[in-house]
């Protein structure tokens, strides 16, 4: 292309970028075809790929030259983040515990650009005037606690919504040496059948403007993460503290038949005696401690008379995944009760999973005061969307004696 004066005109950045992408794609297609057929390039394919590579290098150099000109810089500002494919965006900060619990990861195709070249459109409150406001493409989330109790136990897929299991209530071993012809002693092992069902854990979001969901594509991922986290927090609380009333689980802290370890001398002595209680029944192989972050902090800060940390101090904290107490892993949870820890063999319990957390949405929610006191409207009428996140779970504790409740507080 030439100007009226016959001087060659530079191609636009956009056109150069499109040509470069098309050239690279053609070469990649040829290579992919050869690879899928399990062969090397044919002579014609090798020649074409070589020509494409040469053309690509030339286009790349021309593209860089175009970017350097002031005219192209202005055009680039109008285009936004540039033309290089895959140059923008980042993965959302999906907490590993959320992923581990089955969390979706829509963030593989994360937001690259949601507004013009000078910033991002904010998520606006009602009545706020829209201005050009820079917005980090990843919403800043509040502190996310580590959730890991459900990962300690087998997760079983439930297909009916109900489940049953046998729990041993009594063990009385009376085996002894017996003379010829004498009556053999009788041992007693009492089992009780437990029939249970999964329970629904769910919550709703506040109404969210549909325009915000359209304008900020990362918002849907953000909602998924936060609502999944809320469900996992509730599930973890039920596993530890469910009291068996109404729709609640019977959790680790309220199951009958568990063992107790009162405070003895200090925290280290007390927790070691709890280990002995599990060792007596052969449960220690898959055991772990669960306690609050503050209680674990107090243990890590224990020091001898010379001020030396028993657990290595800051150096030991570098590898947090290796934290152990008397060889058993330590898991911290905000659902735990301060001053109380649990040492449990989590292989002796199961989490029944009928439905992992699912995110749904609706525009059919009616709100009596949507437009003011006594003036109702549906989400559809006000262009709002409400999200629902729910899952269905049940807890089996097969052997309560595999749980030791540990008192970490001196009388």
TrEMBL record:
It comes from the Bacteria. The keyword Cell membrane does not apply. InterPro entries: Phage_capsid (IPR024455), Phage_capsid-like_C (IPR054612). Keywords: Coiled coil. Residues 139-404 form the Phage capsid-like C-terminal domain. SUPFAM superfamilies: Major capsid protein gp5. It holds the Pfam family Phage_capsid. Residues 17-69 form a coiled coil. It is found in: Virion. This is Phage major capsid protein. It comes from Streptomyces glaucus.
